[in-house]
Write a structure and sequence with these properties.
The complex is a heterodimer of chains A (446) and B (310).
Chain A: H1 2-23, E1 29-30, E2 36-38, E3 43-44, H2 46-49, E4 51-58, H3 69-87, E5 93-97, E6 101-107, H4 112-120, E7 125-129, H5 136-139, E8 155-160, E9 165-169, E10 179-186, E11 192-198, H6 200-212, E12 218-222, E13 225-228, E14 240-243, H7 249-261, E15 268-276, H8 278-331, E16 335-336, H9 338-367, H10 372-404, H11 407-438
Parallel strand pairs in A: 3-16, 8-13
Antiparallel strand pairs in A: 1-2, 4-6, 4-15, 5-6, 7-12, 8-9, 10-11, 11-14, 12-13
Chain B: H1 16-38, H2 46-49, E1 51-58, H3 64-74, E2 79-83, E3 89-95, H4 104-115, E4 122-129, H5 131-159, H6 162-185, H7 192-222, H8 228-238, H9 240-260, H10 263-285, H11 287-309
Antiparallel strand pairs in B: 1-3, 1-4, 2-3
Helix pairs in contact in B: 1-6, 3-4, 5-6, 5-7, 6-7, 6-10, 6-11, 7-8, 7-10, 9-10
The chains are: A alpha+beta (446), B alpha+beta (310).
């Protein structure tokens, strides 16, 4: 038995060191000016640190017939990753979910409007010749809708930024896929423009088309909107060009960014957006901390008051419990959310339960006139199955919540699950080891 | 040694007639809540209905009427609620989406900034859930409840005899329905977090029953002479100290969550706190009563069968 105590002390000490090492410092360490000097080890969920969560659906209906959904989603993921990297967000999460959904999490992002513009844009760049032979008034009705029967087969209609319609030839020319670089420049009138460069292959195609169609207008189209339609004055070789469109400097920068990162293979629709402002997150953290500290304090005081020295032993185990769970969560890189804090607080109550069961049992055994040694043995032996039974039901709930929960609820499931596991450990090993040593006492404070 | 309860001999089973009536009322409340939810009359959270929710802190005092005017102009039938401290101008704006796109929230913030002349309003939280996602969340919630029920049932049925397993199942359903009923009656929002609370309550109330059942089982083995009724009463009394202590400490932490945990956890903590109380009640008065009456019924039938033979 002496041996067993030593093993428990050793393991617990190792776990303690491991947890502290994993956990320290738990939250961001800031200098006097508020800059983060050392990042906190606890990974906070978006609900606690603020940020943006987006769930997007890749529009399967708009896929070209030769592209498989699977490939399109993978490609979209890669492009979104490039775009988000270019935005400079720290620790973004970009994941695939199901067959056609993509989840993006951007912790701590401030300018959400800009991020949305960069992420949500398909950025499909096309160049199409304007068809001057077909008059827009001939193929549209009074309300401006195109009449299918009057449409020549090789043309289609798009609007420009001002809402004006133009007839375009369907003939495929160069697209954004041929683009190798894009940059912001300042144009002739001081307005920002986007300069782009095509690949050698694309450049050759571009030269060919412009050479063949001097005097015609070439529309520059981004995501089915005509940005400009300049007249081709001469054959353009060298594969360079510009996009004008009354951009602000930021719009131009973002356009260049998405053009460089590449077009999404199909449009993505944002189907779930959750933005949590940094002040709300900070508020939640401080409230969560307060709740857990007060809750833990009340539980600790109650135990010490009711079970005296034994209660203090349980309290000691309780603090270990909290430390181990947070340590394990850091080691597993699990996310702490506000419901997660609630889970942590609740498991404190459940960890107390294991000890209460044991103590009550020992008290009962003492009442029947057993010696301290026998009462402790009997208490542990009899309480063990009750404790396992009572923990397993909650463990099942936690596992299923983890499987089916999203975001914050998952955080709850994680803390609940590990809280219960650790509570089993602390009750059966830590407090038991202490009681093992108390067996030789002549009176037991319980 | 401090003892809340000392050598109690409360006859829990004697109160079972009242308990049954009381519990039937509680369960009816829950069934009524389910009816209201399925009829779309309950206060369902954004998770399940989809839509727009914006929590905005305006830089200056603003009236609900003014916000409503902006929302009406945009064509949203919005629900408005002032939240937080009186001196802070924080409003919660809720509206359904006009179409399946989630672009509505930008339109609203832009209009609010312009029409109310408040360029510096702070968006504390913005949540937009499209129909695809709300349908997914609904399905996931149903799956979660279903599988949790199966998982817990299987475990209980492995570990306990048939009668005990059925009684535990009924009592757990009783607890969950009761809390759902109370929450819906209070007009609290039924969202994912509420479902999470209900599942946690299920796990917790089983814990209480398991402790009592374990003791009944043990006493059935050790004390052969006593009638079943007194074994059950004795068992509940023997673990009374434990039940009260555990429930008390857990309530201490859940009440502290309720008081200090902030708005998000408010309903969650309330549900858990009530769940602990109802769970304790049902482990004393409902679960064991069912086992006892079932056992009685079986014995009577056996006797009757025996009498017929004679």
């Amino acid at each position: 038995m002496r041996n067993r105590v030593q093993i428990v002390v050793f393991i617990t000490l190792a776990l303690f060191i491991f947890s502290v090492w994993q956990l320290w410092p738990p939250f961001d360490v800031k200098d006097s000016t508020g800059n983060v000097i050392q990042k906190g080890k606890i990974k906070l969920g978006l609900d606690l640190q603020g940020g943006m969560y987006l769930k997007m659906e890749v529009d399967a209906k708009s896929l070209p017939p030769n592209v498989k959904l699977e490939e399109a989603v993978s490609r979209a993921l890669e492009i979104l990753r490039n775009r988000i990297d270019a935005l400079g967000v720290a620790e973004p999460i970009i994941q695939r979910e199901g067959d056609r959904f993509i989840v993006v999490q951007l912790p701590g992002i401030k300018d959400t409007e800009r991020a949305l513009n960069v992420i949500g844009k398909t950025a499909m760049l096309e160049f199409k010749l304007v068809d001057e032979n077909t008059k827009i008034s001939d193929i549209t009705d009074n309300e401006g809708n195109t009449i299918a029967s009057k449409m020549p087969e090789d043309v289609y209609v798009l609007k420009n930024k001002e809402g004006e319609r133009m007839v375009l030839s369907k003939k495929q020319t160069v697209t954004g896929a041929d683009l190798v670089d894009a940059k912001v420049q300042i144009g002739d009138y001081g307005a920002p423009i986007v300069w782009f460069k095509l690949s050698p292959e694309g450049g050759r195609k571009f030269a060919e088309i412009t050479g063949d169609n001097v005097g015609r207008r070439l529309a520059i189209i981004l995501d089915d909107t005509i940005y400009s339609a300049p007249v081709i004055k001469t054959r353009i070789s060298g594969g360079e060009g510009i996009i004008e469109g009354n951009f602000t400097i930021d719009e131009a920068k973002d356009l260049a960014l998405v053009l460089r990162a590449g077009a999404l293979p199909a449009p993505v629709n944002i189907i779930n957006k959750n933005v949590i402002g940094p002040s709300l997150g900070a508020d939640s953290i401080s409230k969560g901390k307060k709740a857990i500290i007060i809750g833990a304090l009340l539980a600790v005081l109650y135990m010490a008051f009711y079970y005296r020295v034994s209660g203090l032993i349980a309290d000691f185990a309780l603090i270990f419990n909290l430390l181990f769970v947070l340590g394990i969560m850091c080691a597993l890189n699990a996310t702490l959310t506000l419901p997660g804090i609630a889970g942590l607080t609740l498991t404190l109550g459940m960890a107390v339960d294991a000890n209460v069961l044991i103590f009550e049992r020992i008290r009962e055994e003492l009442r029947t006139g057993k010696t301290i040694r026998a009462a402790i043995d009997a208490g542990y032996n009899r309480a063990i199955w009750t404790i396992i039974d009572s923990h397993v039901t909650s463990l099942i709930t936690a596992a299923i919540l983890f499987q089916f929960g999203t975001g914050p609820v998952r955080g709850f499931a994680v803390t609940l699950f590990w809280g219960l596991v650790v509570s089993l450990y602390t009750a059966f090993f830590i407090t038991q080891a202490v009681f093992e040593m108390r067996k030789q006492y002549t009176s037991l404070s319980i | 040694m401090i003892e809340i309860v000392k050598n109690t001999k409360i006859k829990f089973l004697s109160a079972r007639k009242f308990a049954y009536i009381f519990s039937i009322c509680l369960v009816s409340l829950g069934l009524f809540a389910i009816y209201r939810i399925s009829a779309g009359k309950a206060n369902m959270g954004l998770d399940f209905t989809g839509g727009i929710s914006l929590q905005i802190k305006f830089s200056e005092h603003v009236t609900t009427d003014k916000i409503r005017a902006v929302m009406d102009k945009l064509g949203y039938n919005a629900s408005l609620q002032k939240v937080g401290v009186e001196t802070e101008n924080i409003y919660l704006i809720r509206a359904m989406l006009k179409d399946s796109s989630t672009a509505g929230s930008e339109e609203i913030t832009k209009a609010l900034k312009k029409e109310l002349n408040d360029e510096n309003l702070e968006i504390l939280e913005e949540n937009v859930i499209g129909p695809v996602v709300s349908a997914q969340l609904k399905q996931k919630a149903l799956y979660a409840v279903f599988f949790a029920a199966i998982g817990i049932l299987v475990y209980i049925w492995i570990r306990f005899q048939f009668k005990f397993a059925v009684a535990a199942t009924i009592a757990t359903i009783h607890d969950v329905l009761t809390i759902l009923g109370i929450m819906v009656l209070l007009g609290k929002e039924v969202d994912i977090l509420m479902i999470t609370a209900l599942m946690t309550i299920a796990g917790y109330s089983l814990t209480d029953m398991v402790v009592v059942f374990d003791r009944i089982r043990e006493n059935m083995r050790n004390i052969l002479k006593e009638p079943f009724e007194s074994i059950i009463n004795r068992s509940i009394n023997e673990v009374l100290g434990r039940t009260i202590n555990t429930s008390l400490t857990t309530i201490l932490v859940s009440v502290s969550l309720y008081l200090f945990g902030g708005d998000v956890l408010h309903n969650f903590a309330l549900a858990i706190t009530l769940g602990i109380i109802v769970g304790t009640y049902s482990s004393w008065f409902v679960a064991s009563a069912i086992i006892f009456d079932w056992d009685n019924y079986e014995k009577k039938r056996k006797l009757a069968a025996g009498a017929n033979v004679r």
